[in-house]
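Sequence and structure are no longer studied apart. To make this concrete, we show below a single chain and its fold as tokens.
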Amino acid sequence: MKPDDRIFAMDESLEASVRRWGSGCHLVGLFSIVLCAFLPIPFLGALPPYVVWRMGRDRHSFIDEQGREAINFQISMTIYLLVAVILWIFLAFTTCIAAISGVNAAQNALSALFSWILWAGLAIAVLFGLFMMAVIFFGAVKASRGQSYRYPFTIRFL
């Protein structure tokens, strides 16, 4: 076996049910994204991975590890998103107030800036969601192969 083949090799030492539970801890994160899109309650996205982790963590240490990783990722992304939304609201509010109170020449420039801030915020939100879906899917695939996965940009709370 070449060194590159080991990267994608499946860990046969883990039972299929353990790998499914580990993968499920990650996959419910996709449900979290949809859930938070319709119910924007902070930290609600960590609830589905928490439920799956609590149900399966005593079965095997792999499930415990991957469940903790999925929960930490959801909490971290919620914190990053909250900070981004607060900054976006601040920028949009201050630009809007400046456009309303400005003179005509400056008002047009500030209105354009306000419009740019709104569109940039929307684009960043879409890219953020796509990033989350990609790494969640990648984590689920790695776990289904029996390999541990550590999410990028994750603060380790658990």
Notes: The helical segments are 3-7, 16-38, 47-56, 61-101, 104-144. The mean pLDDT is 86. Residues 13-144 form one domain. The chain has one domain: 13-144.
